Amino acid sequence: MESASAQIPPSARILQLAMSSWVAAAVSAVAELAVADALAQGPCDVESLAKDLDVDATNLYRLLRATADIGLFEEAPGRVFTLTEVGHALRSDAPDSMRNFARWVNTAAERYTWTGLADSVRTGRSVFESVHGKPVWEYMLEHPEVNALFDRAMTDTSSQVTAPAVAAYDFGTFRKVVDVGGGHGQFLAAILAANPAVRGILFDQPDVVAGAGDEFAKAGVQDRVEIVGGDFLASVPEGGDAYVVVNVLHNWEDDKAELILGAIRRAMAEDARVLLVEAVMPPDGTEALTVKLMDLNMMAHADGVQRSEAQYAELFARAGLKLSRVLSGGGLCSFVEAVRA
């Protein structure tokens, strides 16, 4: 049987697809206004909800009725709304919260960059600088509020990777795990919590790791972790027998990615391993829309790329490493493992 999308006229399907950015903007508005937080205790009518949120009731209703049609809410008589299971993932306190990621996609730094996607294809280069006037990482440094939201958005997405990945790989065989570019340490904290004999080093930019203590305290592992600030393009801490790099390398084109891997190669012991946690691009012709859209995002923003297994093997070889295996990370991401060549 044909899918519902295949049964509508092609022009109507294109209209649906072209309006997808409107859907994303509506979801982002719901996240920005913290509607899911306000509905966490149960059903509420629009007038009361608008007072709680200090927003216009009429326009709030227009937003909620639209996003109810995409499954965030259920509407009952009297303009009463209830969170759905999907809507609960927009709550700030939900274990699977994606609220900050939904907020991030509607920032100028993210949304406006996509307007230059065709130019990225024309030129073969990212368009962030042409759209915003500065390269992406320089822009982030000059806009700390945007950078802070980006960090929280990446924490949202990494939280979806963390539990299945930590369960899928035996980190207990290592003595010390170095998390390179690990942000606030969510992934490393989960590794240490699951493996009481393992110690860790969190390494990222000084201004990023400055806010990292809470994750380790919450996990009860603060006595087994060292927090270090620095530049992974130049060097990383020595002494680790596992170097974990979670959703970092896809932000960088090959020459810069080689610098990161080269810094790790110089720091790692003879028998140490590199563990990239990334969404690996499948073979040509394989359906994998999420990974392919991530790849376009990397292309437009930072000349980054979602790499295939063969591309990782080539990149490792350039840095004096050797691809040893690719393992499922229990979700969208995989472990791309390498050893010294």
Structure characterization notes:
This protein has helices spanning 4-7, 10-18, 20-32, 35-38, 46-53, 57-68, 85-88, 99-104, 108-114, 117-123, 128-132, 136-142, 144-168, 186-194, 206-209, 213-219, 254-267, 289-302, 309-318; strands at 44-45, 73-76, 80-83, 176-180, 199-204, 225-229, 242-246, 273-278, 321-328, 334-340. Helix 3 packs across helix 6 and helix 5 (46-53) packs across helix 6 (57-68). With 341 residues, it is α/β, with parallel strands linked by helices. It has a seven-stranded mixed β-sheet, sandwiched between helices. It has 19 helices and ten strands. The chain starts with a helix and ends with a strand. It has two domains: 4-104, Winged helix-like DNA-binding domain superfamily/Winged helix DNA-binding domain (Arc Repressor Mutant, subunit A, Orthogonal Bundle); 156-340, Vaccinia Virus protein VP39 (Rossmann fold), CATH 3.40.50.
